[in-house]
Every structure is written in structure tokens, then in C-alpha cells.
Design goal:
By secondary structure, the protein is mainly alpha-helical. The chain has two domains: 125 residues, Cytochrome Bc1 Complex, Chain D, domain 2; 105 residues, Cytochrome Bc1 Complex, Chain D, domain 2, CATH 1.10.760. 38% of the residues lie in helices and 6% in strands. It contains twelve helices and six strands. The strands form three sheets. The protein has a two-stranded antiparallel sheet. The radius of gyration is 21 Å and the shape is globular. The protein starts with a helix and ends with a helix.
């Protein structure tokens, strides 16, 4: 009996030791510069589901110059989107791949300068492969010299305004890929962490109420004035066929023939996503998960 107790005690100690010695997995360390597969994946994401040009391109269209200067609105007021071309003086030419990944996911640039996390909310769980692919693609572009003034925020506003608003959170370690074979879960990943549909379509919770996930919300991020982003959850899409949803993603036209305002919604980017990705999104949105 005593020997059994001794063995159990030893096993418990070993288990505790293993837990205490466990370290958060490090980010993936791989040089993807010049890697055509990563750059192609990044090109696809930037110009479709991640819709980077909707905020960072003056044309606000896929494959536009990502030289910034688009007027956006967050809790602190008006802000100009930065130049994210690899120009060494006015863009991100001095950023390493890891620093670009940190800027995308954590809203932190080199030198620990923080920028508005509202626009990147959701990217914190972007997979390591997808984040590095976006970084590799951005580094492969031609640099565009365009100076964008940085906004300065006072101590009071920075620390007290928007206390209850959602923001990007630092996720340490490696973020794995979601298998494309799990169609609903992969659709959830694309909706929440690549396209980040909740940025407009989820109403924020506060002190007296919880958020309404994809249930529609009033938005001011892109218009300079409030507009209503309608529900895009199962309550809206349950009566739509898969063909209806795919047509909506491709054209911005609903079964009732209403159209999406492309100045307010990046539907022009989403339209360039693959059939397989859009089908996964449709399956997830209709699932009610």
C-alpha cells in the first residue's frame, strides 16, 4: 500500500513539474520571403477575404496601391490609414516579416507604437501561415512613397475612451491552421478571423447588455456617419439557398434584389474569394453555430 502511495506521489510530482516547465509555443520561425506559395496565398487573402485595400488603398478596390490615406473613424475620432507598401521612408519597408505579423494581429508597430485596434479586431487569431503569407506578399510589392501623418492621442483619451469597446488582444505563440475539411469550423475561421464580419455586423456589448453576434449593428468605421449593417446570421440566411448566398457574395445582390453599398461593405473584395471558401462561409452562417 505504501509503495502505491509513493508511486502516485512521484507521478503527481512529475506531472506538476511538466506543467511548470511548459512554455507557450513560439511563433513559427520560417523565412517566407520570396516563397512563391506564401506570396500567392497572401495575394489571395489581401485582395479578397482580408480586404486590406478597403482601408489601405485610395481606390478602395482589390489590387489597388496600398499607400494609405483613407479616412476612417474610430472611438478616438478621424484617422488616416497608413501606407503599408514596403517603402523604406513612408511605409513598412523596414519591418521584418515578424513585425508585420505583430502589426496585423496585435495592432503594434515596431517601437511598441500602438494603433487603433478596432480595425484589426479578429486578426489576433489569424493562423500563423496566413499571417506570414500576408506579410510575405506585402514585402513583395513595390514601395510607394507617400507620407501619411500619424495621429497623436492624449493620455486621457488613450486610457479612458472606449474602455468597454472590443479591441485586438495579443495572442502569444503559434496559431495553427483550421482544416478546410471541417467545413463549418473553417467557415467560422474565415468569418471571424479573416473577413472579420463581426467588425460591422456584431453589436458590441456593454455594461448593461451583451453583444449580438452577427445580429446587425450601427457602424461608423468607414462612412463618417452611422449606418446599419444588417444581420448576417442564420436568422437571415436560413431561408436562403446556397446559390442565393453565393450570388450575394459575388454581386452584393440579395434574393429581394436589394444591393449592398460597396462604399460601406468590402463586397468587391469578398467577390474574389474562391468558391470553396465562400461555400464554407455559407455553411457556417446557415448552421447557427
Amino acid at each position: 500500500m505504501e509503495s502505491i502511495k509513493t508511486q502516485v506521489l512521484i507521478l503527481c510530482c512529475l506531472a506538476l513539474g511538466a506543467v511548470s516547465c511548459y512554455e507557450t509555443p513560439s511563433p513559427l520561425k520560417v523565412d517566407v520571403s520570396g516563397n512563391e506559395a506564401y506570396e500567392k496565398r497572401g495575394e489571395y487573402l489581401v485582395n479578397s477575404l482580408a480586404w486590406c485595400g478597403f482601408c489601405h488603398s485610395p481606390e478602395r478596390k482589390p489590387f489597388g496601391l496600398l499607400s494609405g490615406g483613407v479616412k476612417l473613424l474610430d472611438v478616438y475620432g478621424e484617422v488616416l490609414s497608413p501606407n503599408i507598401t514596403p517603402d523604406y521612408k513612408t511605409g513598412i519597408g523596414t519591418f521584418s516579416l515578424d513585425q508585420i505579423v505583430t502589426a496585423v494581429r496585435d495592432s503594434v508597430s515596431p517601437g511598441n507604437r500602438r494603433f487603433s485596434p478596432e480595425f484589426h479586431a479578429g486578426y489576433e487569431w489569424l493562423s500563423e501561415i496566413d499571417a506570414l503569407s500576408i506579410a510575405a506578399y506585402l514585402k513583395s510589392l513595390d514601395g510607394v512613397s507617400r507620407y501619411i501623418p500619424k495621429r497623436e492621442i492624449g493620455f486621457f483619451d488613450r486610457n479612458l475612451k472606449g474602455f468597454f469597446r472590443r479591441s485586438a488582444r495579443e495572442i502569444p505563440g503559434y496559431v495553427p491552421e483550421v482544416s478546410e475539411n471541417d467545413r463549418v469550423e473553417y467557415g467560422r475561421y474565415l468569418v471571424d478571423h479573416v473577413a472579420r464580419c463581426g467588425l460591422c455586423h456584431t453589436s458590441e456589448g456593454g455594461i448593461f447588455g451583451g453583444e449580438r453576434y452577427l445580429g446587425g449593428a450601427n457602424v461608423t468605421l468607414f462612412a463618417g456617419k452611422s449606418f446599419f449593417a444588417p444581420p448576417i446570421n442564420s436568422s437571415r440566411f436560413s431561408s436562403w439557398s446556397d446559390e442565393d448566398i453565393l450570388k450575394f457574395f459575388r454581386t452584393g445582390i440579395t434574393p429581394k434584389k436589394t444591393t449592398v453599398d460597396k462604399k460601406l461593405c468590402p463586397i468587391g473584395f469578398i467577390a474574389l474569394a474562391s468558391d470553396r471558401d465562400l461555400e464554407a462561409i455559407a455553411q457556417y452562417l446557415k448552421s447557427g453555430s
